[in-house]
Specification:
The complex is a heterodimer of chains A (about 525) and B (about 200).
Chain A: H1 61-79, H2 86-92, H3 97-125, H4 127-137, H5 139-143, H6 151-162, H7 167-178, H8 184-196, H9 198-215, H10 220-227, H11 229-245, H12 254-260, H13 268-276, H14 279-289, H15 292-309, H16 314-326, H17 328-346, H18 348-371, H19 375-399, H20 408-430, H21 438-452, H22 480-485, H23 490-494, H24 499-507
Chain B: H1 2-20, E1 30-31, E2 33-37, E3 44-46, E4 51-58, E5 72-79, H2 81-84, E6 104-110, E7 116-121, E8 129-138, E9 144-149, E10 160-163, H3 170-200
């Protein structure tokens, strides 16, 4: 590569005053552009895009972005499609409150397991197959709603449809392979946020489709079943698009590259080991349960809450419920953007503080929502709550790609699973028993969020620091190469398997924040394999 | 931001409008009407198929002039307590605006002094539950002023069961299976096709 490395005094950032203020792109020579690669967008040494052009369809980077978020969006639509139709379904199937509550818990529990598996699948088979397999194999579960005739069948169907939420993991993983680390916060936040928006859109879409079918002459108890064909067909269409238009990595598909010898195949037990022995993984599992988990719980509970507490009409309550989910269109990308912006001056420490502040604010507004006794105050609290909680989700995934390079898939999977577990747990603790009202349940949930966000302070990276501690002074441990190289043993390093991690370490030096220019550039130690 | 403000304002306004509506309490109504249904104990009626025969009218033993304000009669299908259990969306409230006991309207007719009979074919959107029938008399402002029901005050006698339609159809079932099979076959077709292509391409 002929381009210049980062040497002190060479950074041109800010000099011309023409650089964009927001992290939509990474300018050279902060991140050297690979001049040999032939892509429509400027790319770095791993051929990941340095620029995020939202409205472009440039292959492979932006095509991947759109395929990825649309697949995830589709799965959210089908998982929560039943929620606004519950008033009809509960009459058709003769459900009681416990059945409805259990179905809500079931809808988010299925994906705890599937997100774990998806992480491994992405590491081993690639995100393209992972996404396509899941979305096309869960289409029959959506169509199975047509057969449901009892509470048990309903709960089982919602449980199985919920498996499809694992497309979140393939979505985030795919973004991490296609976009550079400096903009990954924004990219991941946007993709996931627009996907999560499906949970809000479905509160408007499904009743609308149901109404159309009813006007066409179907009886209510048949019309809701037909309405499920819409998300089902979306699954099939998106699956086919992913298979025909998508690719795993910027350079091609995983199995083709593995055969060519460009990407070494890895062993699952090792990948799993490095994921579970990294303590940061478990802290983020808890944290994500308190941001995404809460968001999913609210998706299931909020329409009913407004309907009961303020005696609103069902469709008014549905509009409010939709507003909560649709704030994702900007709130989650905002969280990723704020993470990237905080990282420019402060590096990883900025990202951690950003996450802590935003998620704690989410908890505080949740407490306000539970305690608000007038409708306008309640709606205001809900809006602020939705923005901060969803921004926290975005901020979380601005940090996750840096925890590990080797086990990114499994860690993404574990974190995603933690999100769903948090949702099931909070629904069980606060919204199933009649010991306290829904309003009290919401307030108690807010207190739980605030308490469980403190562990962010414990996340420490030796090369970058943590919330309260700076980076280590040790000359060896303060290098990114040391941290990412530690995931490979000597034998694997001899075989050159860790080169992907080394490239990643080089590109992740931006997480030092302003210190990048003043540290001497490490000499690349290992020679390229012959 | 402006859209949010508009949403807030409109919701607040609609709530105010809702509150302005008459606040009629069920406990304030007089029980002057009589309603009977011709159902046998333990009989299960099928929605969409079976008929319910209802006879209703003013209790003839009352003084003349009791019904001077009655302009319209409304017959409704109401849930018995056993079908309201664990179902907060069918809860009985004294405020008639908030009361969810009687969700299904059978018929609404101008008031007639004499006894009326109706053969009502149970509609297909009626859920499986235990029911009784209630009649309301409405005055000129369409507020409830009197009522009568086919069961006693504790809602324990003369209740009948209705079995809802399943909502399922053979054509829907077949369509669902076809779409599902297509999805699975398309997926594995692609997968094996690509695997074959990769195996056949020369390795470097």
């Amino acid at each position: 590569m002929a381009d210049t490395e980062n040497t002190p005094g060479n950074s041109m950032h800010g000099v011309s005053a023409k650089e964009k203020a927001f992290a939509f792109s990474v300018a050279s020579p902060i991140m050297p552009t690979d001049p040999i690669a032939k892509f429509k967008l400027p790319v770095d040494s791993e051929h990941k895009a340095k620029v995020f052009k939202i409205f472009s369809l440039a292959s492979p980077h932006m095509t991947t972005f759109h395929l990825s978020w649309l697949s995830f969006f589709t799965c959210f639509v089908s998982t929560f499609a039943a929620a606004p139709l519950v008033p009809i379904i509960r009459d058709n199937l003769n459900l009681i409150k416990t059945d409805i509550g259990n179905a809500g818990i079931a809808s988010v529990s299925g994906s705890i397991f599937s997100r774990l598996v998806m992480g491994a699948v992405c590491d081993l088979l690639g995100p393209r197959y992972g996404c396509a397999f899941l979305i096309m194999l869960s289409a029959p579960t959506v169509f199975s709603m047509v057969f449901v005739s009892s509470a048990r069948g309903y709960i089982a169907a919602r449980f199985m449809i919920g498996f499809s939420l694992a497309t979140f993991v393939s979505c985030q993983y795919w973004m991490s392979t296609m976009f550079n680390g400096k903009i990954i916060g924004l990219v991941n936040g946007t993709a996931a946020g627009w996907g999560n928006m499906g949970g809000g859109i479905t509160q408007l879409l499904t009743p609308f489709i149901y109404e159309l079918i009813r006007r066409a002459g179907a009886t209510p108890f048949t019309a809701w079943r037909i309405a499920f064909f819409a998300p089902g067909c979306l699954h099939v269409i998106m699956g086919i698009l992913v298979l025909t238009l998508g690719q795993d990595l910027p350079d091609g598909n995983l199995n083709t590259l593995q055969k060519k010898g460009d990407v070494p195949t890895d062993k699952f037990p090792k990948v799993l080991w490095y994921a579970i022995t990294n303590y940061r993984t478990w802290i983020f599992v808890l944290l994500y349960g308190m941001s995404l988990g809460i968001e999913l719980t609210i998706d299931n509970v909020i329409a009913e809450y407004f309907f009961d507490r303020f005696n609103l009409k069902l469709h008014t309550a549905g509009v409010i419920a939709a507003t909560f989910g649709m704030a994702n269109i900007f709130a989650r990308p905002l969280g990723g953007l704020m993470s990237d912006m905080a990282a420019r001056p402060f590096g990883m420490r900025g990202r951690l503080w950003n996450l802590y502040i935003v998620q704690t604010l989410g908890g505080i507004f949740c407490i306000c929502l539970g305690r608000a006794s007038t409708l306008p105050l309640s709606i205001l609290s809900m809006i602020l709550f939705s923005i901060t909680t969803q921004a926290a989700c975005g901020a979380t995934f601005g940090i996750i790609p840096f925890i590990s390079r080797r086990s990114l898939g499994v860690i993404s999977g574990l974190t995603g699973a933690g999100g769903n577990f948090g949702s099931g747990l909070t629904q069980l603790l606060f919204f199933t028993s009649s010991r306290h009202s829904t309003a009290t349940g919401i307030s108690l949930m807010g207190i739980m969020i605030v308490c469980c966000t403190f562990p962010v302070a414990l996340v420490h990276f030796p090369q970058w620091g943590s919330m309260f501690l700076p980076a280590t002074k040790d000359s060896e441990k303060s290098k990114e190469e040391y941290y990412y190289g530690a995931e490979w043993n000597e034998e694997e390093k001899q075989r050159g398997l860790h080169h992907g991690s080394l490239k990643f370490a080089e590109n992740s030096r931006s997480e030092r924040g302003k210190r990048v220019g003043s540290d001497p550039t490490p000499i690349s130690a290992t020679p390229a394999p012959v | 931001m402006a859209a949010r403000g508009l949403l807030l304002a409109s919701i607040y306004l609609s709530l105010l409008v809702h509150e302005c509506y008459g606040v009629t309490l069920f406990s304030s109504l007089q029980k002057t009407l009589q309603v009977t249904t011709t159902t046998k104990r333990g009989q299960v009626l099928k929605a969409g198929e079976d008929k319910l025969t209802i006879t209703w009218g003013l209790n003839q033993s009352l003084a003349a002039g009791t019904d001077s304000a009655y302009k319209t009669m409304k017959l409704q299908l109401c849930f018995a307590p056993v079908s309201q259990k664990d179902r907060a969306w069918r809860k009985t409230e004294d405020h008639l605006n908030k009361d969810k006991t009687c969700s299904f309207k059978i018929v609404e007719k101008p008031y007639n002094k004499s006894l009326q009979t109706l053969d009502w074919i149970i509609e297909s959107d009626v859920p499986t539950a235990t029911y009784f029938v209630r009649a309301y008399a409405l005055n000129a402002e369409r507020h409830e002023v009197a009522y009568g029901q086919s069961t006693n005050d504790q809602k324990t006698t003369n209740l009948f069961d209705i079995q809802a339609i399943t909502g399922r159809h053979a054509s829907l079932d077949i369509a669902s299976v076809c779409f599902s099979v297509f999805s699975v076959v398309a997926l594995f077709g692609f997968f094996f096709h690509e695997k074959r292509k990769a195996r056949m391409s020369p390795q470097k």
